Amino acid sequence: MQTQAEDRTPSVLVVLPQATASAAAEPSAEPSTDVSGHPVPELPAVTPEAWREANRQLLAKALGEWCFEDMLKPIPSGEGRFRVDLQSGTSYVFAAEPGAFGWMRVDPRSITRTATSMLGNSIAEPAWDALRFLSDVSTTLGTDASTLATYFTELSATLAVDAARLTHGGTSAAGLRALGHTELECHMTGHNWLVANKGRVNFSASDVRRYAPESRQPVRLQWIAVHRGLAEFRGTSELSERDVLLRELDEETRARFARGLRASGLEPDAYVWMPVHPWQWDHAVQVLHAADVAQRRIVPLGESPDAYLPGQSIRTMANVSTERRFDVKLPLRILNTLVWRGIPPHCTQGAPVVTQWLHGLLQKDPFLAEECRTVFLGEVASVTVQHPYLAKLPEVPYQHLETLGCIWRESVSSRKDASERVRTFASLLHVDSSGVAFVTELVRASGLAPEQWLRRLFETLLVPIMHVLYRYGITFNPHGQNTLLGFDERDVPHRLYLKDFVDDVCVSFTSVPERGPEPDGHDHVLPRKHPMVIRQHVVDQVFVGHFRYLAPLCAEQLGVPQRTFWRLVRRTILDFHQRFPELRERFAEYDLLTPQIPRYALNRDRLVVTRYTDRALRHALYPNGTLPNPLAEE
Prior knowledge:
The protein has 20 helices and 26 strands. By secondary structure, it is of the alpha+beta class. Helix 2 packs across helix 4.
């Protein structure tokens, strides 16, 4: 694992004030060194200046996103300024730059708040308090007090992390270039579309410092043995249960675990061995599965010898001790970015068979496999554990049913070339403490003209996604964490990596002969959807979810006007159409250039539609109006 000697910023970035009292009452569970072996200092509290700046930035984001999602109505006030009038009698005025899809990029330093004083006169003052804004806007949003209170918690938790990052600084964009994929993930700042993107409901302040990716703390997984009456192992045809254990655990550890079981009078082969996140073991498994633990149907084996780092999803762990080993996706009973972060049993059961099907289908495609060299990071093995009582009850909320299981996935380091750097698509949007975007640093390092580099980016990213969409009627829900880019020695994008197949892969319900026989019996794992919905995965995750933010960054820092940016994207799509004229009918079926696209409002869904209702199933998003598509313009 690569480290960066010149980075002198502390490796623990998050310190929340409310953790102080409990820290004095019990020994700290935090290690004394970070993943690079450097001592972890005792950090001071977040500074008031950093707290205000974090609020100011999040307030600007909330105004921009909530206007974009039609929760607020911006009124033009001339000279690039807008006003939002709230039912509370308060108004917010701000400067904003119009962007694609009707979105506005709000200037954080321009925001003022006007409210009627006790004397009856209106007073305008600079606005920076995002929590006060939530209070002001509450009646306008049309939601309930319970939702607002819980959302307040998510927003406050997000601000605490952002303010800690600002207090302690961070690695420069130039410094980030030297980091490997796993380390780079720990420097990212979360979902760019969702305002409360680090809510992590159920995590304490100490949990955030211990297990959140920005804390960059190595984690040792707890291994357990689950009786075969409860647990089911599944793997691809090339990978048996024994193969996984031989790969993931060294001989000494396997022998130690087996001795522990035998010493308790238990037969090791009667159990499926699997890892569990230490937080989940303590907060969920030993509580919900207390009966199974007491009756030795679930038996703790001990810690893994390897250290892991969490990615931005928190529940996916990358092995940093033995990088050839698998990534491990583990359930966590925390609410973050709209859903509880468990793993549904149908996903653990379906992961290997869907991986086997996709590999068999797509790796035989010479265009993808040989010309594009696209990498599909397979979910190759899994363990499913269903709750023996709750799973039999109807309408039990899903957070209680997804507490135990695991998926092993091929790691980036096991598939990349020796000289290749792999980074998430989302990392391009990262802006360092000096205001330099990571995409700007990569373009500078490449030596290419910005438009040339962007053309390479668009071809690398879009061509494989379009080929899978048009040729097979399949989409991977290619958001910024599922979509990774391989870069050559000059930091030029040259191939695409895709991950998170199960529950994110969708196929069209129209007949597509090229797909061949599909994995029958896994309709819930491999959902069939209308071609317009299939297309929307690409439009929302790539164009609305990332290019919407990347275009203004490129205009501001690379001198590429937004209009030029979108023309380059459109040109990439049309070039693909020209190369594969035999797919003409499907270009119309999955039309990426349509003038209007449905608007799916992620923040509105949490605050107004779904709220915090404890549902039996993960809910589907429904469109709320339409958006003008910048790709429709000639």
